[in-house]
Amino acid sequence: MKDAFGAPQSLLILGGTSEIALATARRLIARRTHTVWLAGRPSAALEQDAEHLRGLGADVRTVAFDALDCESHEAVLGKVFAEGDLDLVLLAFGVLGDQARDEREPLAAARIAQTNYTGAVSAGLVCARSLQTQGHGSLVVLSSVAGERARRSNFIYGSSKAGLDAFTQGLGDALYGTGVHVMVVRPGFVRTKMTAGLDDVPLSTTPEAVATAIEVGLRRRSETVWVPGALRPVMSALRHLPRAVFRRLPI
């Protein structure tokens, strides 16, 4: 059944243990969502998260999904769509990496790029085609403000998110008018397990705040969502700073 005003009945999460995605699932289950697929690498954590959402009243299923195994995406995701129409796909997988280590170890850097960009392109296209076939639904992709302009401190991660962001925008344009809604979400620093141990920064946010912004964006049929919203003018200013000035900033 078609999603109504940002309140999907069915949800597929790619990256089933993502704290942002799970916070989003909780909000949507409280409103209208009753079927949830958690796609991720088989683990105790994935099963625990599924059980938690079942406790909220949802019919939750898990599916083995590996972002790096692009050759399996069509078969794995095709089976999920074959079970019935999906109102919302939330692409939420990604790795932050360790900038200092990854600069020394090119294979580690390549793994970040393959996960955050290549895997997302593959899975995103498979889901987009299935959504277009069913004639409705939303694809929400978690990008990052880090992709707006590469910073010395995390340019490997940032460059992968820049590619993902550009891909998502182009995909949204390609699907415009087909009944499929594509939304890119650009959070700032989110306080999660992935960022544990890192220094907090101004305009930091939480998984719950990102989930709220996603829900509002779905209701408004937004194409781009910044979290928090104040980051939009900040990043616009930083993007246009002369490079000689930008590289001297303590970021």
Provide an overview of this structure.
The protein is an alpha/beta fold and 251 residues long. It has helices at residues 19-31, 44-54, 73-82, 99-104, 106-134, 155-175, 207-220, 231-239, 243-246, and strands spanning 10-14, 35-40, 59-64, 88-91, 137-142, 180-187, 224-227. Strands 3-2-1-4-5-6-7 form a seven-stranded parallel sheet, with helices on both faces. Strand 6, helix 7 (207-220) and strand 7 form a beta-alpha-beta unit. This is Decaprenylphospho-beta-D-erythro-pentofuranosid-2-ulose 2-reductase. It comes from Streptomyces kaempferi. Its EC number is 1.1.1.333. It holds the Pfam family adh_short. Belongs to the short-chain dehydrogenases/reductases (SDR) family.
Key features of this structure:
251 residues; alpha/beta; 7 strands
Sequence-ordered SSE layout with sheet pairings:
Blueprint: E1 10-14, H1 19-31, E2 35-40, H2 44-54, E3 59-64, H3 73-82, E4 88-91, H4 99-104, H5 106-134, E5 137-142, H6 155-175, E6 180-187, H7 207-220, E7 224-227, H8 231-239, H9 243-246
Parallel strand pairs: 1-2, 1-4, 2-3, 4-5, 5-6, 6-7
Helix pairs in contact: 1-7, 3-5, 5-6
Element order, helices and strands?
EHEHEHEHHEHEHEHH
Name the average pLDDT.
Answer: 94
Q: Tally of extended strands?
A: 7
**Tell me, what's the shape?**
globular
The helicity comes to 40-55%
SS-based class: alpha/beta
Give Rg in angstroms.
Answer: 18 Å
Provide a brief overview of the structure:
This protein is α/β, with parallel strands linked by helices and 251 residues long. The chain is built from nine helices and seven strands; from the N terminus they run βαβαβαβααβαβαβαα.
